[in-house]
Specification:
Layout: H1 2-10, E1 17-24, E2 32-36, E3 40-46, H2 53-67, E4 72-78, E5 82-86, H3 108-116, E6 123-128, E7 142-147, E8 158-161
Parallel strand pairs: 3-4, 3-6, 6-7, 7-8
Antiparallel strand pairs: 1-2, 4-5
């Protein structure tokens, strides 16, 4: 289900080009050139105290499946605040990753970070157990919630339940 939801975003029809002054116009006119947009995905991993080692293993297994699509991935660890940001996450980087956080859970800081760092057009995949307050403002972001606990359905986006492996 996660792969299907992601493929709808990654391979969707729509605007795949944007004007950019960083690229010269091919006709040498004083106009911006055209730059092809890449599909970027921001993965928000919940590192709060309610997440155990089993959930982390499942989260990074799902993350490795996302990497295969060839998209540009930014990995963000968050609990009450954004703890760590890793731009250009590559396959297998989870082995060298240290988990930061292990505190409470405040999802609003993740949405604020997306706006502050100009990722509002990117897809936000939130890997979480869903144990947090649902009083937040999503700021009209494109959110895909991947929740490990059945029954937790955060509002403001599409929800996919991750089946935990034994």
């Amino acid at each position: 289900l996660l792969r299907k939801a992601l493929s709808n975003y990654i391979f969707a029809h729509g605007k795949i080009y944007e004007n950019s002054w960083a690229r010269r116009n091919r006709r040498q006119l004083p106009l911006p050139g055209i730059k092809k947009m890449s599909n970027r995905v921001v993965i928000g991993v919940d590192t709060s105290g309610s997440i155990g080692n089993r959930e982390f293993q499942q989260f990074f297994a799902e993350l490795e499946k996302i990497i295969r699509d060839g998209t540009s991935v930014t990995l963000v660890q968050w609990d009450t605040t954004v703890k760590d940001v890793r731009e250009g996450y590559n396959k297998g980087d989870w082995r060298r990753l240290t988990i930061k956080g292990r505190g409470g859970t405040d999802v609003q800081n993740m949405f604020d970070w997306m706006i502050e760092n100009k990722h509002e057009r990117d897809l936000l995949v939130m890997l979480t157990d869903g144990y947090f307050g649902y009083q937040y403002d999503t700021k009209n972001l494109n959110i895909l919630w991947c929740v490990t606990v059945d029954g937790n359905e955060p509002p403001g986006g599409k929800v996919v339940h991750i089946e935990m492996q034994q």
